[in-house]
Automatic annotation (TrEMBL):
<keyword id="KW-0378">Hydrolase</keyword>
<comment type="similarity">
    <text>Belongs to the 4-hydroxybenzoyl-CoA thioesterase family.</text>
</comment>
<dbReference type="InterPro" id="IPR029069">
    <property type="entry name" value="HotDog_dom_sf"/>
</dbReference>
<dbReference type="Pfam" id="PF13279">
    <property type="entry name" value="4HBT_2"/>
</dbReference>
<dbReference type="InterPro" id="IPR006684">
    <property type="entry name" value="YbgC/YbaW"/>
</dbReference>
<dbReference type="InterPro" id="IPR050563">
    <property type="entry name" value="4-hydroxybenzoyl-CoA_TE"/>
</dbReference>
<protein>
    <submittedName>
        <fullName>Thioesterase</fullName>
    </submittedName>
</protein>
<dbReference type="GO" id="GO:0047617">
    <property type="term" value="F:fatty acyl-CoA hydrolase activity"/>
</dbReference>
Length: 147
């Protein structure tokens, strides 16, 4: 069973023509773009988006991407991309699910990992910086308060 995240975000995408190949199926490399869009929404909800990362003195390069295709997305199809934060202590690990918007059928599962790199030294960090940990803690507290 895949680990579920306590913090998640969803985006909807209507598959555009320029993302598909000659048989109107989404080209496999474009799924990474969809993951990025969902990841950006998740980070915005955390209050620790790419601008905030840079302002805190860190960049977060993607160090691993995994995709598992179950069914193709097609031109004009409405899809939903859910991003779930599953690890944040030492790295950012996000699990994704791409689904058909109408039926909820799974199209793709994926995950990404990112590690913090100090902007001033260029050194990879083996623990997440305080700014991320504080952002996650604030979001978790807000979620608990709303339940």
């Amino acid at each position: 069973m895949r680990q579920r995240g306590k913090i998640s975000a969803e985006i909807d995408i209507l598959v555009p023509f320029y993302d598909v190949d000659s048989i109107q199926v989404v080209w496999h490399g474009n799924y990474v773009k969809y993951l990025e869009q969902a990841r950006c929404e998740l980070l915005n909800q955390l209050g620790y988006n790419y601008d905030a990362m840079r302002d805190s003195g860190y960049v977060w390069p993607v160090t691993d991407v995994r995709l598992r295709y179950a069914a193709p997305a097609r031109f004009g199809q409405a899809i939903c991309v859910r991003a779930e934060l599953v690890e944040w202590q030492n790295r950012l690990k996000i699990n994704y699910l791409i689904m058909d918007k109408a039926s909820g059928a799974r199209l793709t599962r994926a995950s990404t990992e990112q590690l913090a790199v100090c902007l001033s030294s260029g050194e990879m960090q083996w623990q997440s910086p305080p700014a991320l940990l504080e952002a996650v803690q604030r979001k978790l507290q807000a979620l608990e308060a709303s339940q």
